[in-house]
Amino acid sequence: MTKLEARGVDFEGVEVVKDGKSFFWSGRYHMDMNTRDTLVTELNVLAQFDPKVPESYQDAEFLMLGNLAPAVQISVINQLKNRPKLIVMDTMNFWMDVAMDDLKKVLTMVDVLMVNDGEARQLSGEYSIVKAAAKIHAMGPKFVIIKKGEHGALLFHDKKVFFAPALPLEEVFDPTGAGDTFAGGFIGHIARTKDISFENMKTAIIVGSSMASYCVEKFGPTRLEEITQDDIDARIAQFVELMNFDISLV
What we know:
Number of helices: 10
Helix content: 40-55%
Number of domains: 1
Order of helices and strands: HEEEHEHHEHHEEEHHHH
CATH architecture: 3-Layer(aba) Sandwich
Strand content: 15-25%
Distance between the termini: 58 Å
Radius of gyration: 18 Å
Mean pLDDT: 91
């Protein structure tokens, strides 16, 4: 926490459970480091987590609901006296297996859903990513972000689609946490610019992808502790260069 406090992170809403065990997940990644098999999921202190939103958070313009139980996500939304300008949520296949009814309820309350391609297929029952996004739109979220690991990410809104490639990396050391890092970069850009348009979300996806590309280079958060704003700007510039090209059909 000390390192985060040094970067200006507010811990007023954080609860510390004495002698409690933190959430634990383990899995086995396939050779492509993109697909994985979950081996163990232990909720531990999160099993009884009942967050209390501080009064100072009541005027928050943007809300990012992390990958927790849908009932917890609903509780946080309901505690806010004024609805934020944008509510973004993350979820995973575990909640689809054990809490689908609550998950469907919270989907009606949010603006943006972030899932990977496997989760999108499980949630929608559709193999086609385009059909999956349409089905999820019908469940409530106006924007759907589908992450495809080393193959980039897709943003869907109405009939509009944006594709952001992943930056080709020579070596991926540990992809665990890349999705959370992507989400942090995404909502961080939105909160900084205060622009919730489709066009700005495209930029936010590039920022999130840039942050995630650093996350996978070392174990856990190690690489993120090392980078500077100049590093982030340089990585974003690499993404922009990757996506720019001229074409002539003459």
